[in-house]
């Protein structure tokens, strides 16, 4: 007699594969479950990746979701996380083709989705730096908004995403090339914004745990530009704490 775990695994496989069985009778009952789970999974990705869906069309999007689900079945009871590996799947599935850039578009849309469930912490102002001794300033560590997600791509995926917030958007010129930016939760929704490369580089360094001075070197900032970049970070409410 099959164990409970074996029955659960065979039932999960049968929900994804029409040819698989798991002992459920009548078979029509299993088909109802299969259709419901398929629809729920696809709907979750349609909500999470609306621009990608718009760019490829409904039929191809359904095909992508079907193949993705076969390789990356949901392992959470919360369908919000169903698209966690979609960009990874597209990286391989579209590798070497003209549409490989769609993987980075998916990465941006997932950054927005994951930011959406992040918390909005209280931000600190530039005066937090003034509380540090001058000799310790370069060793300062920054805490950033927990929901902050940073995305960079050799393709203009931010321009594509922003343009496609309107219906019937025209294709974006791919020759625009590299773009970088962020997604982060706000009290009024999720913000998606393009960042200057040096601001992105500085933020990425801070997010990885580098000090103010180390991040300055990493991003290639001189003193005046550092002052400008810090002003951008504090005015945007991205910094939630400064420690030495």
Note the overall shape. elongated
Largest sheet: 3 strands, antiparallel
What is the percentage of strand-forming residues? 5-15%
Helix content bin: 40-55%
- Poorly predicted spans: none
Strand order of the largest sheet: 2-3-4
Mean pLDDT: 88
How large is the radius of gyration?
Answer: 22 Å
- Helix/strand/pairing class, anyone? mainly alpha
What separation lies between the terminal Cα atoms? 62 Å
Q: What is the count of DSSP helices, taking H or I runs of 4+ residues?
A: 11
State the total count of DSSP E strands.
5
* Helix and strand run: HHHHHHHEEHEEHHHE
Number of folding domains?
A: 2
Written description of the protein model:
The chain has 244 residues and is mainly alpha-helical. The chain folds into 2 domains: 24-93, no CATH class; 119-244, no CATH class. It is built from 11 helices and 5 strands. It has helices spanning 4-16, 27-48, 50-56, 58-71, 86-93, 101-116, 127-130, 157-163, 197-207, 212-219, 223-235, and strands at 141-144, 149-153, 179-186, 189-194, 239-243. A hairpin with a 2-residue loop joins strand 3 and strand 4 (189-194). Helix 5 (86-93) packs antiparallel against helix 6 (101-116), helix 6 crosses helix 8 (157-163) and helix 9 runs antiparallel to helix 10 (212-219). The mean pLDDT is 88.
């Amino acid at each position: 007699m099959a164990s409970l775990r074996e029955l659960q695994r065979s039932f999960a496989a049968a929900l994804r594969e029409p040819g698989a069985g798991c002992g459920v009778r009548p078979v029509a009952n299993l088909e109802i479950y299969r259709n419901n789970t398929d629809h729920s999974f696809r709907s979750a990705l349609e909500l999470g990746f609306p621009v990608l869906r718009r760019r490829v069309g409904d039929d191809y999007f359904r095909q992508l979701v079907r193949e993705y689900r076969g390789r990356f079945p949901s392992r959470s009871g919360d369908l919000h996380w169903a698209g966690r590996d979609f960009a990874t799947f597209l990286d391989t599935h579209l590798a070497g083709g003209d549409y490989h850039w769609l993987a980075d578009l998916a990465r941006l849309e997932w950054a927005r989705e994951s930011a959406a469930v992040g918390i909005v912490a209280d931000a600190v102002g530039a005066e937090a730096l003034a509380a540090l001794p001058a000799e310790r300033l370069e060793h300062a560590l920054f805490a950033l908004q927990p929901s902050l997600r940073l995305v960079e791509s050799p393709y203009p995926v931010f321009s594509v995403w922003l343009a496609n917030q309107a219906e019937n958007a025209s294709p974006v010129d791919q020759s625009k090339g590299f773009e970088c930016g962020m997604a982060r939760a706000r009290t009024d929704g999720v913000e998606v914004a393009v960042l200057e490369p040096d601001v992105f580089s500085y933020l990425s360094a801070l997010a990885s745990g580098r000090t103010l001075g180390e991040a300055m070197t990493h991003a290639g900032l001189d003193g005046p530009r550092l002052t400008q970049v810090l002003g951008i970070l504090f005015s945007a409410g991205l910094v939630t704490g400064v420690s030495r």
